[in-house]
Amino acid sequence: METPDFIKYAAGDTQFGAQFLGMLEAILRADPRDAGAWSTLGVLLRRSGKLNAAIACHNRALEFAPENASIWTNLGNALTEAGRLAEAVDAQQEALRWEPCNPRVMFNGIVGLRQAGRFAEALALIDRAGGQAADAALRWERALVRLQIGDYVHGFGDYGARRSLPSYNGRNAVLPVWDGKALRGRSVFLTSEQGLGDALLMARYLPLVKALGGRVLYEGHEELRRVLSASGIDEYRSWGGPVDGDVEASQMDLPGLFDTTMASIPPPVRLRVPEDARRKALGILGPREPDILRVGIVWSGRVTFADNARRATGLAPFLRFAEIPGVRLYSLQKGPPESELVELGPAGRLVVPLGPDLEDFADTAAMVEQLDLIIMTDSSVAHLAGALGKPVWNLVQYVPYWIYGFSGTWTPWYPSMRLFRQGVDLDWRPVFDAAAAALRDEVRRRTGR
């Protein structure tokens, strides 16, 4: 709700984008006071990740058009992505001052308020923007805010709005949609949606579905087949195949179908860890050493996930845990970020790389069982460790995934999880300071060091 289609095209097409940037350069050469050209350039720069330059361009535009709400809201968007949250809210409020009823400006203001953790203000602006007649994008924002503050009753009521968003990549229903009532012998086709972590999170509902008296046909990620095979599933299918059964639902709809509240969250699903995976883990990790704390680490989720840059860090901050006597680090990291271990050279021996031996989540679960503690930034392994009941310290961004709420050191979704939270400045250093201090205490508690 912010960028004209031709600008999106220019940002995504290298040749056309170069031509368009050349055109903007010509316009600005002819008239350096062209506010529209400066702000359009800022939008393009933001979309290519050049946030500081984008912010500077929007501010230059405002020198010549200080009453232009479009420029103010574009500036707010760039400031939000740069993590300058208070400034971003100020910019969006200035945009609203000039155009208080502009739908695009209101929407951008809502997003800025939510990402700044100003939830009451975001809800008030959503009511002003659409109220009960809110469109899908507004209802989705309202769902995110309500879930973040623990208002699950109303939050899950809006959660279905995601299906109407252009970014929705789940299945469209082809069977009658299940209403959550008793199945009475019918087959329900349940499809996983979103990432591996979400699938593990929502797997806690599978036994509840099975208890309603039907067959559970589950379409899931192949990496999870072995760990979820004992979770009330009658037939596990790889994602993307044909749909059959009597009724269907997305796994992400289950909390709403079961009227979940903060007080009625089901316990994590019991995962199956195959014996061959356990033997493999024992063979790799070897016998335990007295007075040594085995700590698994993960520093990034899926790099293609849109919010990964905010929730993840590099490997480097985790190395401070290796400074603590009695601590040995084991990497559970998978994917492109694994290369950071290789880049350490000989210093990479400070971390034992387990990633190359992890073929699926059954292998990861078996490794996690043999470790004493997992410390990580939020990703699917946090859900795996939480479901296994393993102590997991989750280092989370300022406004994290909604199951972690917005304050406190725990989440009702995973009793064995401890949360270490970023502040509004989005600085990871205090988070790692707190985790390192807690790890020293943990070593003393366990080993007497």
UniProtKB/TrEMBL annotation:
Coiled coil: none annotated. TPR repeats lie at residues 35-68, 69-102. This is Tetratricopeptide repeat protein. The keyword Lipoprotein does not apply. It comes from Azospirillum picis. InterPro entries: TPR-like_helical_dom_sf, TPR_rpt, Ycf3/AcsC/BcsC/TPR_MFPF. Keywords: Repeat, TPR repeat.
